[in-house]
Amino acid sequence: MADQNVPPRRPRDDRGWAGHQRPASDGHRDTWTPAPYGYAAPAQTSADPRGPHAHHGARGPQWVGPDGFARQGAAPSGGPGLPNLDDDEPGRRVGRRKALAALGGTAAVVAGGAALAMTPQVRGLLGDDVVAGDATGTTVTDGAPTRPSGQQPSTVRTYTEQNESYMGSRAGEALKKNNPAGGRTFSGPAAAAAETRVTVRTVLAKDPVLHLARRATFGVTPQVVADISERGIDGWLRWQLDPEKIAPTRAELKLADLPTLKLGTAQLREQREQLNERGAHPEKEMVDATIARQIWSKRQLFEVMVDFWNDFLHVAADFDGGEVHRASFDRDVVRAHALGSYPEMLLAANRHPALLLYLNQNDSRADAVNENLARENLELYSVGVDGGYTEKDVRQAALLQTGRGVSDGRYVFRPERHYVGKVKILGFTHANNSKDPKKAEAAIDAYLTYIALHPSTAKYVAQSLATRFVSDTPPKSLVDRLARTYTANKGMIKPVLMTLFSSSEFWAAVGQKVRRPMEYLVATYRALGVAPDASPRHDNGDSKRTPYARGLRQIHDKMRELGQYPMGQPTPDGYPDVYVAWTSAGTMVNGWNEAGDLLAGRRTVFTYTPAERLVARPPATAGAYVDALALRLVGQKLSARERTLILGVAGVPAGARVDATFNGAVTAVARAILASPQHHLR
């Protein structure tokens, strides 16, 4: 019999999550399989982009979907000879591939001046004669496999330990040393920005406007900087925290090109066959729309929070039932409460068919209890694995939640399936003595509200928000302050965000976050000012889909290649939110290549600013032109070392005279700037 006083673990039978056969240990983090799709052991695959738990060339989990085996988020292996980097010319003093790789290598190992894990694949790109380091001279260190806890990401007890496990590496310890220590709350964000001195080592400009733009949006643009400067920090945040009053952009209005977005659950069920014939997949169009909003919406902070909750209260886009129910979950649960009340979000989620089907609650009844939803409500969606609950608590919660399910595509409560009897869960007690739907549901909702407001939940939400907005190793002082605000405001999110933005720890943490693959790609589209209209030379042929719809799907597919896309994690944990989970040379190079494609205007479904017109009045000398391009694309000048590397890409000295095309090298130069740490860091 399990010791009720030890931290809870996954179910102890051999079936794993959702009652399917658990895959053999292969060096990857444990995975749990939702029926009827899920993980299965694949053939030999390339390096997984999601970090040190996925070893190059190792057998890893593979997603099994309706079309059979398909590698989830595979990326090309990292090493010399990757596509679009072998563009060196004979006699060039500094090879473009090596110079670009050196810039990217710096991005791979620098986060606020602390050394991150440098993978063997990145070393291969750099070559033995190129030494990558940051502008402050920090020594590059290996990402040692040891963790203070002695656990690898492949052997951690639960999903929620993944960030902690990654950050227990030597690279994570280096990051912790560069974190600002302690802090305080000011009267408002602007006051905090004005009074906070940035002492961390970083290559990023210590400009509060740029810092806010990097953290509270999906990427700096000249318009975002202008908006913050015009409204002021306080005014801009008030504007962003009231997204209903922000008018939709043209790109958001064009989402009418995605036919399934305006259909309700019943219509999606009724029209399933017709939609399939047209190639319209609701779960994919929902992701397409999310990508569009991340790139083009002015409601940027709202979209950042939507992405945050889609990782925290995670339901995968691709699951059996997702094609009908996931878009409604996005609209009616996540987006409806993203800046509102987390307890209300959790209540809404637990009555939504998407979550009930995803975690098999529909199969649970008093005489045959399924614990999946009850466990994840505790482990992932509220108190966290260290929140003090036991296996007995999980069982009691699972009994209490029996009766909830789905019928004909709608949420239902089945009294005949509901367990009746007193329950005690983590300090919550209830008589639960009636099968009457109103009384039984009231008992369930009372329990969910209780755990949503539990002190451990306050700390867990605070830790997650601080990790998203501040650093991979957020200061305890900030986490404690956010948790107190969460508790005092009964789980309302806006006050927590205002406390975060009014804290010195936020403003002191310049350069302490690195963009994950999806974030890098979205930031690149934003930086280049890609417009949502088809270019004049686009030929849509006889396609049933508009150029805009096709373009969004192309970005979606590219994100899948990179290993991260909205709501893409198949398991209920959501994506890791620390950079050492994402170190992959193949992923970096794939991102740089996409930047090159955008600069060249190769995706004709969109309109681009030609590279030679990114700077309105290009300077006549190469060094000054690099400075002007950097200011346009990343909002600041580069370090002397990075500037030299980029001039090497063009093969000219700083004083050389160049025309608007940089003597034919402007696309290569702009792509190199987008491979710099200044674009990888946020």
UniProtKB/TrEMBL annotation:
- Per UniProt, the ranges with Polar residues bias are 148-157
Give the residue spans that cross the bilayer. 99-118
Q: Where is the composition biased (Basic and acidic residues)?
A: 10-31
> Do you know which InterPro entries this protein is assigned to?
DUF1800
Where do the segments described as Disordered lie? Answer: 1-92, 136-157
- What UniProt keywords are attached to this protein's entry? Membrane, Transmembrane, Transmembrane helix
Name of the featured protein? Uncharacterized conserved protein, DUF1800 family
